[in-house]
Amino acid sequence: MIHLLLLLAARVLAQDRTTEAGEASITDQTLECTIYSYPPVVAALNTFPPIWQPVMSVPTNDTVGRAKFLAMNASIPNIPPKGTLTGDFSNFTPTYNTADPDCWWTFHQCVTPKLSGLSMDIANVPEPRTLGFGFDDGPNCSHNAFYDYLAEQEQKATMFFIGSNVMDWPLEAQRAVSDGHEICVHTWSHRYMTAFPNEGAFGELYYTLQAIKLVTGVTPTCWRPPFGDVDDRIRYIASQLGLETILWQYNSNDWEVGLNGVTTDTVQANYDALAANVSAGLFDGAGVIMLTHELNNYTMQTMIDNYPKLATAFDHLVPIAVAQNKTQPYVETNYTFQTFASYIANHTTKPSLNGSSGSGSSSGSGSQTTGTGSGSAGAVSGSTGLVAALALVLGAVALGL
After folding, report:
1. If I label 46, which of 60, 123, 241, 298 is the partner at 20 to 30 A Cα–Cα?
2. Measured between alpha carbons, how far is 59 from 178 in angstroms, rounded to an integer?
3. Which residue among 136, 148, 229, 232 is the active-site one?
4. Alpha-carbon distance 116 to 211, whole Å?
5. Separation in Å, CA 105 to CA 184, 194, 400
6. Could you tell me the pLDDT band of residue 278, with boundaries at 50, 70 and 90?
């Protein structure tokens, strides 16, 4: 066993875990998902909540974050939290007003806020026969083959990133920006947002914004609530942080395989139905957004398998910002997207027929974008691979292997 671990350690050391391009060149999924350390993240950890833990309050040492929350707290709508962080609403819905005064998406898929001053959620795209192309739950540590495929197709997408994933896999987050994808917020810990108290809901969004800025240099202006769970209280908090809410009309259910009776056949049927609805003319007036995920190898491979079908059925597959003609996707003004008309003039949705994977390296800034868009806070220490390799061996020794 020690011999095998030493071999793995040697392979880790042989890889470049110090740059986005080096990380993007790794083709072995085991190595892709071998942990590494990113100095800017390590240096900033004490100003962030614990990774993957639901945020219930702003860390006491984050005076900037606390001041920002207190500045908005008094104006947050007086709407009580709902259910539990894991989505159990059984003690709440029996007494909830059926008129849905909070525009609670989980209750009745409400996308038009009842509270004045809030913008309507984005649940489709205005361009006909167009798919707003995006993926939740990244960055996934094993996404290189998937991103390579998208690069080969010259396909950009909207990536909804979980803050804790960004902190765990910063070079993978950097690749998304480098490849020209749009980045949006998908909360810190991926819990049901309407269950959080005000300070917790603020923290779930704020610290994801901070993580993305720390790692990639850009500050998103969009977010998607996990499970679609949003109401006017959460929309208000998001709006105060400069985030527009993006939902969906169609659900691939790819994340749900093995749960609630969902099978791979269910997911394939959902993809087939979406493509058939294009042919049936359902999207001749306006386009559509489908919920899909960067969650695991199955969800990513399923999109690869279905991409030719979607690219043939739709006239255009574009990032959601492009479909909105939103040319400034981030707070930073040095990074822009093309208009829809300009984008489609330079991109084709017809799939490449020369294989299912790219060259194994990042595609650079991408023709969709101008400006650097990277702004990374520094490179990973060259000792990262050594630390990971030694950890493998020392762990084995401790276990007596």
Report:
1. 241
2. 31
3. 136
4. 31
5. 19, 10, 52
6. very high
Is 272 labeled as catalytic in the residue annotation? Answer: no
The encoded tokens of residue 59 equal 């860390």
Taking only the tens place, the pLDDT of each residue in 160-216 is: 999 999 999 999 999 999 999 999 999 999 999 999 999 999 999 999 999 999 999
**Mean pLDDT score across all residues of the chain:** 87
Cα distance between residue 341 and residue 346, in whole Å: 9
| Domain annotation for the chain: domains and CATH numbers | 2-35+384-398 (no CATH), 55-370 (3.20.20.370)
For residue 150, what are the β-bridge partners?
Answer: none
With CA atoms as reference, report the closest residue to 372 among 332, 317, 322. 332
- Output the 3-class SS for 201-270: HHHHHHHHHHHHHHHHCCCECEECCHHHCCCHHHHHHHHHCCCEEECCCEECCHHHCCCCCCCHHHHHHH
**pLDDT (mean) for 347-354:** 59
How far apart are alpha carbons 155 and 326 in whole angstroms? 17
Q: Give the phi and the psi of residue 381 in degrees, each rounded to 5.
A: -60, 145
Q: Is the pLDDT of residue 31 over 50?
A: yes
For residue 383, what are the contacts with CB-CB under 8 A and spacing of at least 6? none
Yes or no: say if 231 and 100 are a contact pair by the CB < 8 Å rule: no
Find out whether 250 and 93 touch, Cβ atoms under 8 Å: no
Exactly one of 143, 181, 293, 316 is catalytic; which is it?
293
Phi, psi (5° rounding) for residue 286? -155, 155
102 carries an active-site annotation: no
CB 337 within 8 A of CB 321: yes
C-alpha of 107 from chain center: 24
Q: Give dist(CA 323, CA 70) in Å, integer.
A: 35
Q: HSE (CB half, 13 Å, CA atoms) of 59?
A: 16
Q: How confident is the model at residue 18 (pLDDT cuts 50, 70, 90)?
A: confident
Average pLDDT over residues 355-363: 35
